[in-house]
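Researcher: Here's a chain I'd like modeled. Treat it as a single chain, no partners, no ligands.
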Amino acid sequence: MEKVRTVAVLGASYGGFRAAQLLATSLPNGWRVVLVERNSHLNNVYNFARYAVLPGHEHKAFIPYDYAFGNSINTDTPHIRIHGTVTSLHPNHITYIRHSLSSSSSSEPAPEPQTLHFDYLIYALGSHLPSPIDLWEHTRERAQHLDKGRDHDKTTGTGTKGHGISWLRERQARIEAAQSVLIVGGGALGIQFASDIAAIHPLKKRVTLLHSRTRLLPRFEPALGDEVLTALQDLGVQVILGERLDLDSLRANQCDGMDENRTGSVFHVRTLSGREIDAEVVLLCTGQTPNTALMRDMDSRAVGKGGLIRVTREMQVLVEDESSEADFGEEGHVKKAMGVIPKMTESEPVSRIMVNPNSSQGPGDRTSSSQAKRTIYPHIFAVGDAADAFGALQAGHTAYYQAEVAARNVVRLIKREARRCGSLSWSEGDGEETEGEEELEEYTPGLPMVKVSLGLTRSAYEIGGVVGTKDDGVPDLNAAAMWGACGLKEVDEEGMWR
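Model: Modeled as a single isolated chain. Structure tokens:
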């Protein structure tokens, strides 16, 4: 029996989910997708802030993976979804530990790591979310305690829907009990928390939003920031711009045994300019950290400034092939590792990029093929928040489109190899009759776009440079639409408890 070959997809959020869908419906016979994800359900993190404040909808944030491999549930499929955490990445295999659906504790023995070999891989592990919406923060704290200097998970959590619902309910209770809340960070997350708390608990809480920039959402048109500021002030939120939190003042409270997310005591913090602020709950919405430690451990050259994975325009992980004897640790030499992936020829257009090592990759870095260098990892792709994708906004929709490019390029490379081996005709699968190799697709970021809720019904948006507002929102942020996008169309309220 012919060996089944594997495309591994690490992470099944917005980008990884889309990559798995496309691959499962496009791969030739003899290939399978193996999707590895630590959560049992897709976490719709864009609704976390609302559901962490407003009770009754928290179960809607966790969507079953029924349709991860296409538009219909098919039990007779070669494709596999693994509920587990990746513990190491190597040029041609990963190790992972499976999660139990039951709760785990630090006293339980850790599961034995398992190995998965792959021919191609798409790295879609995203980023560690800000603390107020990070369901896995406790797991990472345990990992750091056990293994100083590492920031990827070394121990398992459950990653289940039940755990996520309980976590959101705990947040609801903390905010309900607090009389004062300080939100640090004026990005979309901080704005949503501030507006939701003020709208859901009108006149009952003192809500303060602290932002280090002189205007909100500075990456977008000034009119959007102005619209958001007016809406926050209308809701009674105190907005402080141009001042940065003195983190030492927060740490001083934590050293006294306080948790910024818990109530019962008052935090006394200050800004770097000396302004003092008191709050019972402090929500740090100050950005996210790319989840790239696994890639860095495999090859530190693949991770650049800001901790992001360097990629080509084709979304392949970029480490220049400076020498045929380049070393990457226990895997030996590049020549040895590359022997198990599709062989490349000098005429191929894959990864023809010249990189300035002193600056981040950008649209102007492409050069003629005579000057170009290849990546030594043409079979490994990275998408989403973990990738340094030419200035693209870190958001679910950009991860989605990058994943489409990566998945289509994986299929192109597989078919290219099959044609050379004679197992696939030049026209099969592409609808083309001419003999020739299809160029790999390049990713180009679109214009930044965003939509932020400003209370239960109001929102502001920017799309294609156009700023506008709406007043048609619903309390659950139209959760059914995302369920439908994941294949679960016409789902009712009861169905969302699955």
